[in-house]
Structure formats: structure tokens, C-alpha cells
Amino acid sequence: MDIKDFIKKFRAEFEDIPQGSITPSTSIKDIEGWGSMHALIVVALADTEYGVTIKGEELKKANTIQDLFNLIVSQQK
User: Fold this and answer.
1) In this predicted structure, what is the pLDDT of residue 20?
2) How far apart are alpha carbons 56 and 43 in whole angstroms?
3) Per residue in 20-60, pLDDT tens?
4) Is the alpha carbon torsion for 29, 31, 37, 39 positive or negative?
5) Does residue 77 have a pLDDT over 80?
6) Would you say 21 and 15 are in contact if contact means Cβ atoms under 8 Å apart?
7) Is 53 within 8 Å of 75 (Cβ atoms)?
8) CA 46, CA 65: separation in Å to the nearest integer?
9) Which of the residues 24, 35, 38, 52 could staple to 66 if both were Cys, CB 3.0 to 4.6 A apart?
10) What is the pLDDT of residues 41-52, one digit of tens each?
């Protein structure tokens, strides 16, 4: 898995995010409309695509897309 692949899958989960607007340095909380529903979608994405369980507290610590990617990679077996 690489960051570009992760961004592609991340963006595919959110129809309202314009193509090319997400980069590794994008702040998760700055994504328009970001909320608890989006967080649940990210948790499900990590589980289904990467076999990783993300806890709410871990997700809260992720500030950027890169942080989220690093969290998932660090938990892969």
C-alpha cells in the first residue's frame, strides 16, 4: 500500500470531495463537512480494505491524511 493508493480509496468513499483536493498534508478536520459519519466511514475503510481496526481515540489523534495512512500502516500485520 502506498499513500497515493490510500488517498484514492479515501476520496472514493466521499462523493463530495473534489478530485485532486486531497494530499498527504490535507488536514482531516478541514475537509468540508467532516464529522462523525465521515469518521465511521474511515474506520470501515481501514477494516475492509486493510484489515485494520482503528479506535476512536486513535482516529482523533490523526490530524492529516498522512497521519491516518501512518496509523493504518503501523497496525497492519
Assistant:
1) 84
2) 8
3) 889 999 999 888 878 888 899 999 999 999 999 999 899 99
4) negative
5) no
6) no
7) yes
8) 13
9) 24
10) 999 999 999 999
CA dihedral 16, 70, 56, 51 (to 10 degrees): 90
The pTM for the full model equals 0.89
Q: How far apart are CA 48 and CA 61, in angstroms?
A: 21
pLDDT of residue 22: 92
Q: How far apart are CA 19 and CA 75, in angstroms?
A: 28
- Residue 35 C-alpha cell reads as 464529522
**CATH number of the domain encompassing residue 42:** 1.10.1200.10
Domain of 53, in residue numbers: 3-75
Say what the pLDDT of residue 13 is.
Answer: 86
- The string over 18-34, giving b where at least 16 C-beta atoms fall within 10 Å of a residue's C-beta and e elsewhere, is eeeebeeebebeebeee
